[in-house]
Write a structure and sequence with these properties.
Elements (H helix, E strand, L loop, with lengths): L2 E6 L5 H19 L15 E7 L2 E15 L2 E13 L8 H12 L8 E5 L5 H6 L3 E3 L3 E4 L7 E4 L3 E5 L12 E2 L6
The structure holds coenzyme A.
Amino acid sequence: MISLDLRWTTELTNYDYEDLAALFDSEYEEGWGKWSPKTGYGYARGELHALARSRGQLLGYAATARRFIGVGRKEVLIAGTGGVITRKDSRGTGVGRQVLAALQEANREFAPADFGFLGCREAVVPFYEACGYARLHKLTKDVSPQDAMTVIRSNGPTMICAGTKPISSWPDGTIDLRGLPW
Ligand SMILES: CC(C)(COP(=O)(O)OP(=O)(O)OC[C@H]1O[C@@H](n2cnc3c(N)ncnc32)[C@H](O)[C@@H]1OP(=O)(O)O)[C@@H](O)C(=O)NCCC(=O)NCCS
């Protein structure tokens, strides 16, 4: 039985941070070093956090934070999504999907945004598609997590999902995240 907690950053406990550090380190410590609660890996920080637990054990996590970004000549409010991860021994059992579904629902209700948004590796595009995201083939501008300064232009993969607006209403044009990716 999985329980899903949604918490604002100010509601996270030391116990949550310890669990998160263990979960991130189990995946990324070798390549990225130890995860830090304050800086993570240099990406934009989450404001709303989804934690999936079973018998107290953290099985999965993701977070969103809202920001106004530029798309062509329009301004769009997105819920940038990051830190998506599930425990290695729980993968393929629907935990990732449940974590994202909880955030998607929140982004249509008490933490509203026009769209959900994320950048990812090519290898996980099918996972996000299975979770309701669609790929955008547009140039994306953001700031490098390595120095929080250098502007990077890339072709993604960039994925969006419906928030308070349907995917079909995403405007045309270059995407300017106006800051760090999530
Ligand atoms: C990517 C990740 C979060 C997926 O989590 P998960 O709990 O295994 O995902 P789920 O079991 O909820 O899978 C949901 C659906 O996506 C599919 N899926 C999951 N991982 C997939 C992958 N790597 N490639 C293709 N499809 C995948 C599942 O088969 C399932 O499809 P279904 O519609 O047929 O049921 C997990 O593998 C992970 O933590 N990886 C390491 C960290 C990472 O890469 N995070 C993404 C950063 S952008």
